[in-house]
Write a structure and sequence with these properties.
Layout (H helix, E strand, L loop, with lengths): L3 E9 L3 H12 L4 E5 L10 E4 L1 H10 L2 H11 L5 E5 L6 E6 L15 E4 H14 L3 E4 L1 E9 L2 E8 L5 E11 L6 H5 L4 E3 L4 E9 L11 E7 L3 E7 L5 E9 L6 H4 L8 H12 L7 E10 L2 E3 L3 E2 L2 E3 L5 E2 L6 H21 L9 H26 L14 H6 L36 E4 L2 E4 L8 E5 L4 H10 L8 E5 L12 H4 L7 E4 L5 E5 L7 H12 L5
Parallel strand pairs: 1-2, 1-10, 2-7, 4-13, 10-19, 23-24
Antiparallel strand pairs: 3-6, 4-5, 8-9, 9-10, 11-17, 12-15, 12-16, 13-14, 14-15, 17-20, 18-19, 21-22, 23-25, 25-26
Length: 543
Protein backbone atom coordinates (compact mmCIF):
# COMPACT_ATOMS: atom_id res chain seq x y z
CA UNK A 1 0.00 0.00 0.00
CA UNK A 2 1.83 3.07 -1.26
CA UNK A 3 -0.35 6.04 -0.42
CA UNK A 4 -3.08 7.36 1.83
CA UNK A 5 -5.78 9.68 0.49
CA UNK A 6 -7.90 11.82 2.79
CA UNK A 7 -11.31 13.12 1.80
CA UNK A 8 -14.49 14.28 3.48
CA UNK A 9 -16.73 11.68 1.83
CA UNK A 10 -15.79 8.46 0.06
CA UNK A 11 -18.37 7.17 -2.42
CA UNK A 12 -18.17 3.47 -3.28
CA UNK A 13 -19.68 3.27 -6.76
CA UNK A 14 -19.34 5.70 -9.65
CA UNK A 15 -22.47 5.00 -11.66
CA UNK A 16 -25.68 7.01 -11.76
CA UNK A 17 -26.18 7.25 -7.97
CA UNK A 18 -22.51 7.50 -7.02
CA UNK A 19 -21.83 10.31 -9.48
CA UNK A 20 -25.03 12.08 -8.44
CA UNK A 21 -23.86 11.89 -4.82
CA UNK A 22 -20.49 13.39 -5.73
CA UNK A 23 -22.20 16.13 -7.77
CA UNK A 24 -24.64 17.08 -5.02
CA UNK A 25 -21.87 17.10 -2.41
CA UNK A 26 -19.86 19.42 -4.65
CA UNK A 27 -22.93 21.66 -4.89
CA UNK A 28 -22.58 22.13 -1.12
CA UNK A 29 -18.82 22.62 -1.19
CA UNK A 30 -17.83 19.15 0.04
CA UNK A 31 -15.01 17.26 -1.62
CA UNK A 32 -15.57 13.58 -2.35
CA UNK A 33 -13.83 10.64 -3.98
CA UNK A 34 -15.96 8.23 -6.03
CA UNK A 35 -14.55 4.75 -6.69
CA UNK A 36 -15.95 2.86 -9.69
CA UNK A 37 -15.18 -0.68 -10.88
CA UNK A 38 -15.65 0.08 -14.58
CA UNK A 39 -12.59 1.58 -16.23
CA UNK A 40 -14.84 3.59 -18.55
CA UNK A 41 -18.56 4.22 -19.05
CA UNK A 42 -20.33 1.31 -20.69
CA UNK A 43 -20.95 1.81 -24.40
CA UNK A 44 -24.19 -0.19 -24.30
CA UNK A 45 -27.23 2.06 -24.90
CA UNK A 46 -28.80 1.60 -21.47
CA UNK A 47 -31.63 4.11 -21.28
CA UNK A 48 -33.31 5.40 -18.18
CA UNK A 49 -36.58 7.22 -17.65
CA UNK A 50 -36.13 10.30 -15.47
CA UNK A 51 -39.04 11.86 -13.61
CA UNK A 52 -39.93 15.47 -12.90
CA UNK A 53 -38.37 15.49 -9.44
CA UNK A 54 -35.07 14.12 -10.72
CA UNK A 55 -34.94 16.80 -13.41
CA UNK A 56 -35.65 19.40 -10.71
CA UNK A 57 -32.56 18.14 -8.87
CA UNK A 58 -30.53 18.29 -12.07
CA UNK A 59 -31.87 21.82 -12.59
CA UNK A 60 -30.63 22.80 -9.13
CA UNK A 61 -27.21 21.30 -9.93
CA UNK A 62 -27.01 23.31 -13.14
CA UNK A 63 -27.14 20.42 -15.62
CA UNK A 64 -30.81 20.31 -16.67
CA UNK A 65 -30.15 21.97 -20.03
CA UNK A 66 -27.25 19.62 -20.82
CA UNK A 67 -29.28 16.55 -19.85
CA UNK A 68 -32.25 17.69 -21.92
CA UNK A 69 -30.04 18.38 -24.94
CA UNK A 70 -28.53 14.89 -24.65
CA UNK A 71 -31.99 13.37 -24.34
CA UNK A 72 -33.18 15.16 -27.47
CA UNK A 73 -30.17 13.87 -29.40
CA UNK A 74 -31.07 10.31 -28.44
CA UNK A 75 -34.87 10.15 -28.11
CA UNK A 76 -37.99 11.83 -29.43
CA UNK A 77 -39.51 13.86 -26.55
CA UNK A 78 -42.94 13.30 -25.02
CA UNK A 79 -43.69 9.93 -26.55
CA UNK A 80 -46.56 7.61 -25.65
CA UNK A 81 -46.39 4.43 -23.58
CA UNK A 82 -48.20 1.56 -25.27
CA UNK A 83 -48.49 -2.22 -25.32
CA UNK A 84 -48.29 -4.11 -28.61
CA UNK A 85 -48.42 -7.69 -29.82
CA UNK A 86 -45.24 -6.83 -31.71
CA UNK A 87 -43.74 -3.66 -33.11
CA UNK A 88 -45.06 -4.55 -36.57
CA UNK A 89 -48.29 -5.98 -35.19
CA UNK A 90 -51.40 -4.67 -33.54
CA UNK A 91 -51.55 -2.35 -30.54
CA UNK A 92 -53.06 -3.90 -27.42
CA UNK A 93 -53.30 -0.91 -25.09
CA UNK A 94 -52.32 2.75 -24.70
CA UNK A 95 -51.29 3.57 -21.13
CA UNK A 96 -50.56 7.27 -21.55
CA UNK A 97 -50.61 9.33 -24.77
CA UNK A 98 -47.65 11.48 -23.74
CA UNK A 99 -44.80 11.05 -21.31
CA UNK A 100 -45.50 14.54 -19.94
CA UNK A 101 -49.27 14.60 -19.83
CA UNK A 102 -50.39 16.89 -16.99
CA UNK A 103 -46.95 17.87 -15.67
CA UNK A 104 -47.03 21.58 -16.55
CA UNK A 105 -48.89 22.68 -13.43
CA UNK A 106 -46.67 20.65 -11.10
CA UNK A 107 -43.08 21.31 -12.10
CA UNK A 108 -40.85 23.56 -14.21
CA UNK A 109 -39.28 20.34 -15.54
CA UNK A 110 -40.44 17.63 -17.91
CA UNK A 111 -39.85 13.90 -17.87
CA UNK A 112 -37.42 12.45 -20.38
CA UNK A 113 -35.42 9.44 -21.48
CA UNK A 114 -31.65 9.61 -21.69
CA UNK A 115 -29.11 6.82 -21.98
CA UNK A 116 -26.79 6.27 -19.06
CA UNK A 117 -23.74 6.45 -21.37
CA UNK A 118 -25.06 9.88 -22.35
CA UNK A 119 -25.89 11.04 -18.83
CA UNK A 120 -23.03 9.78 -16.68
CA UNK A 121 -20.31 11.92 -18.33
CA UNK A 122 -22.47 15.00 -17.65
CA UNK A 123 -22.75 14.05 -13.97
CA UNK A 124 -19.03 13.36 -13.74
CA UNK A 125 -18.02 16.64 -15.36
CA UNK A 126 -20.23 18.62 -13.02
CA UNK A 127 -18.95 16.74 -9.98
CA UNK A 128 -15.32 17.26 -10.97
CA UNK A 129 -15.94 20.96 -11.64
CA UNK A 130 -16.97 21.19 -7.99
CA UNK A 131 -13.86 19.43 -6.70
CA UNK A 132 -14.88 15.77 -6.71
CA UNK A 133 -12.47 13.09 -7.93
CA UNK A 134 -13.30 9.79 -9.60
CA UNK A 135 -11.12 6.67 -9.48
CA UNK A 136 -12.18 4.42 -12.36
CA UNK A 137 -11.17 0.77 -12.62
CA UNK A 138 -10.98 0.48 -8.83
CA UNK A 139 -13.07 -1.01 -6.04
CA UNK A 140 -13.43 -0.70 -2.28
CA UNK A 141 -12.40 -4.08 -0.87
CA UNK A 142 -12.30 -3.50 2.89
CA UNK A 143 -13.73 -0.94 5.29
CA UNK A 144 -13.26 -0.18 8.97
CA UNK A 145 -14.82 2.64 10.95
CA UNK A 146 -14.61 4.21 14.37
CA UNK A 147 -16.04 7.27 16.09
CA UNK A 148 -13.79 9.56 14.07
CA UNK A 149 -14.15 8.29 10.53
CA UNK A 150 -13.89 5.51 7.97
CA UNK A 151 -10.77 3.84 6.61
CA UNK A 152 -11.11 1.93 3.34
CA UNK A 153 -8.78 -0.16 1.20
CA UNK A 154 -9.16 0.64 -2.49
CA UNK A 155 -7.72 -1.79 -5.04
CA UNK A 156 -6.97 -1.13 -8.70
CA UNK A 157 -8.65 -4.01 -10.47
CA UNK A 158 -6.13 -4.44 -13.31
CA UNK A 159 -2.86 -4.12 -11.38
CA UNK A 160 -3.95 -5.16 -7.89
CA UNK A 161 -2.24 -2.08 -6.42
CA UNK A 162 -3.86 -0.86 -3.22
CA UNK A 163 -4.21 2.46 -1.48
CA UNK A 164 -5.79 3.54 1.78
CA UNK A 165 -8.49 6.16 1.88
CA UNK A 166 -9.44 7.94 5.10
CA UNK A 167 -12.80 9.69 5.06
CA UNK A 168 -15.21 11.18 7.53
CA UNK A 169 -18.13 9.36 5.91
CA UNK A 170 -18.74 6.72 3.26
CA UNK A 171 -21.70 6.43 0.88
CA UNK A 172 -22.27 2.92 -0.48
CA UNK A 173 -23.72 3.24 -3.99
CA UNK A 174 -22.38 -0.07 -5.30
CA UNK A 175 -25.65 -1.41 -6.69
CA UNK A 176 -27.89 -4.32 -5.85
CA UNK A 177 -25.11 -6.86 -5.26
CA UNK A 178 -23.17 -4.66 -2.86
CA UNK A 179 -20.33 -6.51 -1.15
CA UNK A 180 -19.98 -3.66 1.36
CA UNK A 181 -23.63 -3.94 2.39
CA UNK A 182 -23.05 -7.63 3.00
CA UNK A 183 -19.88 -6.88 4.96
CA UNK A 184 -21.89 -4.58 7.21
CA UNK A 185 -24.41 -7.38 7.81
CA UNK A 186 -27.36 -5.38 6.49
CA UNK A 187 -30.02 -7.79 5.24
CA UNK A 188 -32.66 -7.11 2.61
CA UNK A 189 -36.37 -7.59 3.33
CA UNK A 190 -38.66 -8.49 0.48
CA UNK A 191 -40.01 -11.21 -1.75
CA UNK A 192 -36.82 -12.60 -3.22
CA UNK A 193 -36.30 -13.23 -6.92
CA UNK A 194 -39.49 -13.74 -8.92
CA UNK A 195 -37.99 -13.69 -12.43
CA UNK A 196 -34.59 -13.92 -14.10
CA UNK A 197 -34.68 -11.42 -16.92
CA UNK A 198 -32.38 -10.40 -19.75
CA UNK A 199 -31.82 -7.10 -21.53
CA UNK A 200 -30.68 -7.38 -25.14
CA UNK A 201 -28.75 -4.45 -26.64
CA UNK A 202 -28.91 -4.40 -30.42
CA UNK A 203 -28.72 -2.62 -33.75
CA UNK A 204 -31.53 -3.20 -36.23
CA UNK A 205 -33.46 -0.95 -38.57
CA UNK A 206 -36.91 -0.66 -37.01
CA UNK A 207 -37.51 2.87 -38.28
CA UNK A 208 -40.21 1.91 -40.81
CA UNK A 209 -42.36 0.63 -37.94
CA UNK A 210 -41.98 3.86 -35.94
CA UNK A 211 -42.94 6.23 -38.76
CA UNK A 212 -45.75 8.49 -37.59
CA UNK A 213 -45.68 6.96 -34.09
CA UNK A 214 -44.04 8.88 -31.24
CA UNK A 215 -43.44 6.05 -28.77
CA UNK A 216 -41.26 6.38 -25.68
CA UNK A 217 -41.82 2.95 -24.17
CA UNK A 218 -43.22 -0.08 -25.98
CA UNK A 219 -44.44 -3.07 -23.97
CA UNK A 220 -44.54 -6.30 -25.98
CA UNK A 221 -46.84 -9.20 -25.08
CA UNK A 222 -47.13 -12.24 -27.32
CA UNK A 223 -46.87 -16.05 -27.08
CA UNK A 224 -43.06 -15.94 -27.39
CA UNK A 225 -42.20 -13.31 -24.79
CA UNK A 226 -43.24 -10.44 -22.57
CA UNK A 227 -41.00 -7.43 -22.18
CA UNK A 228 -40.43 -3.90 -23.43
CA UNK A 229 -38.51 -1.92 -26.06
CA UNK A 230 -36.71 1.37 -25.70
CA UNK A 231 -35.49 2.66 -29.03
CA UNK A 232 -33.27 5.57 -29.94
CA UNK A 233 -34.63 8.39 -32.10
CA UNK A 234 -33.23 6.86 -35.27
CA UNK A 235 -35.14 3.63 -34.72
CA UNK A 236 -31.95 1.72 -35.52
CA UNK A 237 -30.57 1.01 -32.06
CA UNK A 238 -31.96 0.26 -28.62
CA UNK A 239 -32.66 -2.51 -26.18
CA UNK A 240 -35.29 -5.11 -25.46
CA UNK A 241 -35.85 -6.22 -21.86
CA UNK A 242 -37.39 -9.70 -21.68
CA UNK A 243 -39.12 -10.74 -18.45
CA UNK A 244 -41.14 -13.77 -19.55
CA UNK A 245 -40.69 -16.39 -22.27
CA UNK A 246 -43.31 -18.83 -23.50
CA UNK A 247 -46.60 -19.57 -21.78
CA UNK A 248 -46.41 -18.68 -18.07
CA UNK A 249 -49.63 -20.56 -17.33
CA UNK A 250 -48.38 -23.79 -18.87
CA UNK A 251 -44.84 -23.64 -17.44
CA UNK A 252 -44.41 -20.82 -14.87
CA UNK A 253 -40.88 -21.82 -13.85
CA UNK A 254 -39.51 -21.77 -17.38
CA UNK A 255 -41.41 -18.62 -18.26
CA UNK A 256 -39.87 -16.69 -15.38
CA UNK A 257 -36.36 -17.70 -16.40
CA UNK A 258 -35.94 -15.62 -19.55
CA UNK A 259 -32.18 -15.43 -18.99
CA UNK A 260 -31.61 -19.19 -19.09
CA UNK A 261 -30.37 -19.03 -22.70
CA UNK A 262 -28.42 -15.97 -23.83
CA UNK A 263 -26.80 -17.48 -26.89
CA UNK A 264 -26.71 -15.11 -29.84
CA UNK A 265 -29.14 -17.24 -31.79
CA UNK A 266 -31.69 -17.15 -28.98
CA UNK A 267 -31.32 -13.39 -28.53
CA UNK A 268 -31.91 -12.83 -32.25
CA UNK A 269 -34.97 -15.09 -32.06
CA UNK A 270 -36.44 -13.05 -29.19
CA UNK A 271 -35.78 -9.74 -30.96
CA UNK A 272 -37.45 -10.90 -34.13
CA UNK A 273 -40.47 -12.13 -32.18
CA UNK A 274 -40.77 -8.78 -30.39
CA UNK A 275 -40.40 -6.87 -33.64
CA UNK A 276 -42.82 -9.16 -35.46
CA UNK A 277 -40.37 -9.48 -38.37
CA UNK A 278 -39.17 -13.08 -38.84
CA UNK A 279 -36.17 -12.22 -41.06
CA UNK A 280 -35.10 -8.94 -39.37
CA UNK A 281 -31.33 -8.35 -39.79
CA UNK A 282 -29.97 -7.90 -36.24
CA UNK A 283 -26.58 -7.08 -34.71
CA UNK A 284 -26.34 -8.04 -31.02
CA UNK A 285 -24.21 -5.53 -29.09
CA UNK A 286 -24.50 -7.21 -25.72
CA UNK A 287 -26.79 -8.76 -23.14
CA UNK A 288 -27.21 -8.29 -19.40
CA UNK A 289 -28.91 -10.72 -17.06
CA UNK A 290 -30.75 -9.32 -14.08
CA UNK A 291 -33.07 -10.55 -11.37
CA UNK A 292 -36.47 -9.03 -10.78
CA UNK A 293 -36.93 -8.40 -7.07
CA UNK A 294 -38.74 -6.06 -4.69
CA UNK A 295 -36.43 -5.72 -1.70
CA UNK A 296 -35.54 -3.06 0.86
CA UNK A 297 -32.50 -2.83 3.13
CA UNK A 298 -33.32 -3.25 6.80
CA UNK A 299 -31.10 -0.28 7.57
CA UNK A 300 -29.83 2.64 5.48
CA UNK A 301 -27.10 3.61 7.95
CA UNK A 302 -24.33 1.86 9.84
CA UNK A 303 -22.30 4.31 11.90
CA UNK A 304 -20.64 6.60 9.37
CA UNK A 305 -21.64 4.51 6.35
CA UNK A 306 -24.84 5.13 4.35
CA UNK A 307 -26.57 3.05 1.68
CA UNK A 308 -28.03 4.72 -1.41
CA UNK A 309 -29.59 3.58 -4.66
CA UNK A 310 -29.85 -0.12 -5.49
CA UNK A 311 -27.69 -0.97 -2.48
CA UNK A 312 -30.65 0.21 -0.38
CA UNK A 313 -33.62 -0.83 -2.51
CA UNK A 314 -34.28 -3.11 -5.46
CA UNK A 315 -37.46 -2.93 -7.50
CA UNK A 316 -38.90 -4.09 -10.83
CA UNK A 317 -38.25 -1.75 -13.77
CA UNK A 318 -41.94 -1.02 -14.34
CA UNK A 319 -42.29 2.76 -14.07
CA UNK A 320 -38.55 3.43 -14.06
CA UNK A 321 -38.57 4.23 -10.35
CA UNK A 322 -35.29 2.62 -9.26
CA UNK A 323 -32.73 5.05 -10.64
CA UNK A 324 -34.85 8.09 -9.76
CA UNK A 325 -35.22 6.92 -6.17
CA UNK A 326 -31.45 6.49 -5.92
CA UNK A 327 -30.80 10.04 -7.17
CA UNK A 328 -33.29 11.32 -4.57
CA UNK A 329 -31.42 9.37 -1.87
CA UNK A 330 -28.21 11.10 -2.89
CA UNK A 331 -29.80 14.55 -2.87
CA UNK A 332 -31.34 14.06 0.58
CA UNK A 333 -28.07 12.83 2.06
CA UNK A 334 -25.69 15.35 0.47
CA UNK A 335 -26.85 18.52 2.22
CA UNK A 336 -26.96 16.73 5.57
CA UNK A 337 -23.42 15.39 5.19
CA UNK A 338 -22.30 18.86 4.15
CA UNK A 339 -23.76 20.66 7.18
CA UNK A 340 -22.55 18.05 9.67
CA UNK A 341 -19.07 17.94 8.08
CA UNK A 342 -18.82 21.72 8.39
CA UNK A 343 -19.91 21.66 12.01
CA UNK A 344 -23.06 23.65 11.25
CA UNK A 345 -25.43 20.82 12.21
CA UNK A 346 -25.26 18.15 14.89
CA UNK A 347 -24.60 14.47 14.02
CA UNK A 348 -28.25 13.70 14.77
CA UNK A 349 -29.18 15.31 11.45
CA UNK A 350 -27.67 12.28 9.70
CA UNK A 351 -30.15 9.99 11.46
CA UNK A 352 -32.92 11.70 9.53
CA UNK A 353 -31.58 10.23 6.26
CA UNK A 354 -32.87 6.77 7.10
CA UNK A 355 -35.96 8.15 8.84
CA UNK A 356 -36.93 10.00 5.66
CA UNK A 357 -35.61 7.93 2.79
CA UNK A 358 -36.36 4.39 3.94
CA UNK A 359 -40.17 4.96 4.08
CA UNK A 360 -39.98 6.65 0.68
CA UNK A 361 -37.96 3.71 -0.61
CA UNK A 362 -40.44 1.19 0.75
CA UNK A 363 -43.40 3.03 -0.80
CA UNK A 364 -41.69 3.17 -4.19
CA UNK A 365 -40.61 -0.49 -4.11
CA UNK A 366 -44.21 -1.50 -3.39
CA UNK A 367 -45.58 0.65 -6.20
CA UNK A 368 -43.07 -0.75 -8.70
CA UNK A 369 -43.98 -4.28 -7.59
CA UNK A 370 -47.70 -3.59 -7.89
CA UNK A 371 -47.24 -2.32 -11.44
CA UNK A 372 -45.13 -5.33 -12.37
CA UNK A 373 -47.54 -8.00 -11.12
CA UNK A 374 -50.62 -6.28 -12.54
CA UNK A 375 -49.14 -5.28 -15.92
CA UNK A 376 -46.20 -7.50 -16.85
CA UNK A 377 -46.52 -10.65 -14.73
CA UNK A 378 -50.20 -11.35 -14.19
CA UNK A 379 -49.39 -15.07 -14.38
CA UNK A 380 -47.91 -14.79 -10.87
CA UNK A 381 -51.49 -14.30 -9.62
CA UNK A 382 -50.04 -12.11 -6.87
CA UNK A 383 -52.30 -10.75 -4.17
CA UNK A 384 -49.61 -9.28 -1.89
CA UNK A 385 -49.48 -5.88 -3.55
CA UNK A 386 -50.71 -2.44 -2.56
CA UNK A 387 -53.21 -0.49 -4.71
CA UNK A 388 -51.53 1.27 -7.63
CA UNK A 389 -51.45 5.00 -6.97
CA UNK A 390 -51.02 7.96 -9.30
CA UNK A 391 -47.50 8.44 -10.68
CA UNK A 392 -47.51 12.06 -9.51
CA UNK A 393 -47.78 10.88 -5.90
CA UNK A 394 -44.73 8.65 -6.33
CA UNK A 395 -42.66 11.29 -8.09
CA UNK A 396 -43.60 14.33 -6.00
CA UNK A 397 -46.03 13.32 -3.27
CA UNK A 398 -43.95 11.40 -0.73
CA UNK A 399 -43.62 13.21 2.59
CA UNK A 400 -40.97 13.11 5.28
CA UNK A 401 -41.44 12.67 9.01
CA UNK A 402 -38.30 13.17 11.07
CA UNK A 403 -36.70 15.55 13.53
CA UNK A 404 -35.72 17.69 10.51
CA UNK A 405 -39.41 18.51 9.92
CA UNK A 406 -41.83 20.31 12.24
CA UNK A 407 -44.85 18.14 11.51
CA UNK A 408 -48.20 19.84 11.97
CA UNK A 409 -50.94 18.34 14.12
CA UNK A 410 -53.38 16.36 12.01
CA UNK A 411 -50.99 16.06 9.09
CA UNK A 412 -51.82 12.90 7.10
CA UNK A 413 -49.37 10.00 7.09
CA UNK A 414 -47.39 8.92 4.06
CA UNK A 415 -47.76 10.32 0.59
CA UNK A 416 -50.47 12.51 -0.90
CA UNK A 417 -51.40 14.10 -4.21
CA UNK A 418 -48.84 16.91 -4.68
CA UNK A 419 -51.67 19.15 -5.90
CA UNK A 420 -53.19 18.86 -2.42
CA UNK A 421 -50.11 19.17 -0.17
CA UNK A 422 -50.21 23.02 -0.18
CA UNK A 423 -46.75 23.33 1.32
CA UNK A 424 -47.42 21.09 4.30
CA UNK A 425 -44.20 20.55 6.32
CA UNK A 426 -42.47 17.39 5.14
CA UNK A 427 -43.67 17.82 1.55
CA UNK A 428 -41.74 19.10 -1.46
CA UNK A 429 -42.15 22.86 -1.80
CA UNK A 430 -44.76 23.50 -4.52
CA UNK A 431 -43.80 24.87 -7.91
CA UNK A 432 -45.27 28.23 -8.92
CA UNK A 433 -44.18 30.56 -11.72
CA UNK A 434 -42.98 33.99 -10.51
CA UNK A 435 -41.35 36.97 -12.23
CA UNK A 436 -38.16 38.81 -11.32
CA UNK A 437 -36.54 41.48 -13.44
CA UNK A 438 -38.90 40.68 -16.29
CA UNK A 439 -37.83 37.01 -16.36
CA UNK A 440 -39.91 34.02 -15.35
CA UNK A 441 -38.63 31.71 -12.63
CA UNK A 442 -40.04 28.93 -10.49
CA UNK A 443 -40.35 29.07 -6.73
CA UNK A 444 -38.01 26.06 -6.88
CA UNK A 445 -35.34 28.29 -8.43
CA UNK A 446 -35.22 30.26 -5.16
CA UNK A 447 -34.15 27.11 -3.31
CA UNK A 448 -30.83 25.29 -3.47
CA UNK A 449 -27.74 25.47 -1.30
CA UNK A 450 -29.37 27.15 1.71
CA UNK A 451 -32.36 27.31 3.97
CA UNK A 452 -34.84 29.70 2.40
CA UNK A 453 -37.68 31.59 4.04
CA UNK A 454 -40.50 32.32 1.60
CA UNK A 455 -42.87 34.95 3.00
CA UNK A 456 -46.31 36.01 1.77
CA UNK A 457 -46.68 39.63 0.56
CA UNK A 458 -47.31 41.05 4.05
CA UNK A 459 -44.85 38.72 5.80
CA UNK A 460 -41.86 41.02 5.84
CA UNK A 461 -41.58 40.69 9.63
CA UNK A 462 -40.60 37.05 9.19
CA UNK A 463 -37.73 38.07 6.91
CA UNK A 464 -36.53 40.61 9.46
CA UNK A 465 -36.72 37.94 12.16
CA UNK A 466 -34.57 35.55 10.12
CA UNK A 467 -31.99 38.26 9.53
CA UNK A 468 -31.87 38.95 13.26
CA UNK A 469 -30.84 35.38 14.13
CA UNK A 470 -28.50 34.70 11.19
CA UNK A 471 -25.40 35.42 13.27
CA UNK A 472 -26.38 32.60 15.63
CA UNK A 473 -25.75 30.09 12.82
CA UNK A 474 -22.23 30.75 11.51
CA UNK A 475 -21.54 28.86 8.31
CA UNK A 476 -25.23 28.30 7.55
CA UNK A 477 -26.54 29.97 4.40
CA UNK A 478 -29.89 31.61 5.14
CA UNK A 479 -31.94 33.47 2.56
CA UNK A 480 -35.35 35.13 2.62
CA UNK A 481 -37.73 36.29 -0.09
CA UNK A 482 -41.04 38.12 0.06
CA UNK A 483 -43.18 36.74 -2.74
CA UNK A 484 -45.73 38.98 -4.41
CA UNK A 485 -43.95 42.33 -4.20
CA UNK A 486 -42.47 44.42 -7.05
CA UNK A 487 -39.04 42.73 -6.83
CA UNK A 488 -40.52 39.23 -6.96
CA UNK A 489 -43.90 39.32 -8.65
CA UNK A 490 -46.57 36.67 -8.27
CA UNK A 491 -48.56 37.32 -11.48
CA UNK A 492 -51.54 35.17 -10.52
CA UNK A 493 -51.42 35.88 -6.78
CA UNK A 494 -51.22 32.15 -6.14
CA UNK A 495 -48.28 31.87 -3.73
CA UNK A 496 -50.09 32.06 -0.39
CA UNK A 497 -52.68 29.48 -1.46
CA UNK A 498 -50.08 27.15 -2.98
CA UNK A 499 -48.08 27.19 0.26
CA UNK A 500 -51.06 27.16 2.63
CA UNK A 501 -50.24 30.57 4.13
CA UNK A 502 -52.15 33.61 5.24
CA UNK A 503 -51.15 37.02 3.79
CA UNK A 504 -48.60 37.51 6.61
CA UNK A 505 -47.34 33.92 6.84
CA UNK A 506 -44.05 32.32 5.86
CA UNK A 507 -42.56 28.95 4.98
CA UNK A 508 -39.05 27.68 5.80
CA UNK A 509 -37.69 25.40 3.07
CA UNK A 510 -34.68 23.10 3.48
CA UNK A 511 -31.77 22.96 1.00
CA UNK A 512 -33.32 19.85 -0.58
CA UNK A 513 -36.53 21.72 -1.40
CA UNK A 514 -38.70 20.14 1.32
CA UNK A 515 -40.70 22.33 3.68
CA UNK A 516 -39.29 22.17 7.22
CA UNK A 517 -41.81 24.47 8.93
CA UNK A 518 -44.40 27.13 8.21
CA UNK A 519 -46.47 29.71 9.99
CA UNK A 520 -49.84 30.52 8.52
CA UNK A 521 -50.10 33.62 10.68
CA UNK A 522 -48.18 36.87 11.12
CA UNK A 523 -44.85 36.97 12.92
CA UNK A 524 -45.18 37.30 16.71
CA UNK A 525 -43.06 39.67 18.78
CA UNK A 526 -40.54 36.90 19.47
CA UNK A 527 -40.40 35.67 15.86
CA UNK A 528 -36.60 35.64 15.92
CA UNK A 529 -36.58 33.28 18.88
CA UNK A 530 -39.20 31.10 17.19
CA UNK A 531 -36.98 30.72 14.11
CA UNK A 532 -33.91 30.08 16.26
CA UNK A 533 -35.66 27.18 18.02
CA UNK A 534 -36.93 25.79 14.72
CA UNK A 535 -33.47 25.84 13.13
CA UNK A 536 -31.82 24.37 16.24
CA UNK A 537 -34.28 21.49 16.12
CA UNK A 538 -34.06 20.85 12.39
CA UNK A 539 -30.25 20.96 12.50
CA UNK A 540 -30.04 18.71 15.58
CA UNK A 541 -28.11 21.39 17.46
CA UNK A 542 -28.05 21.59 21.20
CA UNK A 543 -30.06 24.67 22.28
Amino acid sequence: MTQTDRVDVLVSGGGLVGLSTAMFLARHGVASLAVEKLAETSKLPRAAFFHMRTLELFRDAGIEAAVRAQSEREFTPDGAIVAVESLAGRQLAAFIPSLNEGVESLSPCRRLFVSQPGLEPILRRRAEEGGAKVLAGCEVVDVAQNAGGVTATVREIESGAERRVEARYLVCAEGGRSALRDQLGIAMDGRGVFSNSVTIYFKADLSPYLEGRNLSLIYVVNPVLSGFFRLEKSGKRGFLAVNIVGDPLADPQRAANAASDVSEGRLVELLRAAAGIPDLPVEIEGAARWRCTADLAQRYKDGRIFLAGDAAHLMPPTGGFGGNTGVHDAHNLAWKLALVSKGVAGPGLLDTYEAERRPAGRFTVEQAYARYVTRSATYLKATDYEPVTNDFEIELGYRYRSSAVVTEAGSPEGREDPRQSHGRPGSRAPHLWLERGGARLSTLDLIGDSFVLLAAPQGGAWRSALESVATSFPGLALKAHIVGVPGLRDPENGFAKAYGLGPQGASLVRPDGFVAWRSVAAAPADAGEVLRRILDGVLARAP
